[in-house]
Amino acid sequence: MDKLRAVLGGRDGHNDNRSIIETANEASTLGWGTRVKGFIACMVIGVGCTILGAGMLFIPKIGLLLFIVFYTFGNVCSLFSTMFLMGPLRQVKRMCDKTRAFATAVMLTCLVLTLCAVLWWKIFILALVLVILQSIAFAWYGLSYIPFARDAVLKFFSMMCRMCMKQSVGDVS
Hints:
Elements: H1 2-8, H2 20-27, H3 32-56, H4 63-86, H5 88-95, H6 101-119, H7 124-143, H8 149-172
Helix pairs in contact: 3-4, 4-5, 4-6, 4-7, 6-7
């Protein structure tokens, strides 16, 4: 309807001052059913790639390479799946919120560096470390959408650390 108003109002509807994100957001006028289907499809592809990558881990010689590539691609698909529900502009804004900015930056950096480490640099130990960091950052990012989930996880791990400390102090005496 806005395009029709722009044409009827004498504007051709093209505004070169818009950013890529604004253009993508404008183009994402999908119905709710289509958005849910897109979310489910991307999420299934993401989880499927992650599981497939884990299965590839046991293939001699190239298994580690395939695991890392499939695992990273699975995380990217899972991340993109939420764009179907919220739209790209809103998703990017929420990813850059102060509560998620650090986790987002670490996650995206690890995604890129993981692929660089395995495909170009051929340093598989570094790639494995980056996969672990990628997983932790992705989980921390995901927990930010659940109220009080991060606090609960922090309390759980601090409780576990205190129990381990008491256990180790008790073994010494």
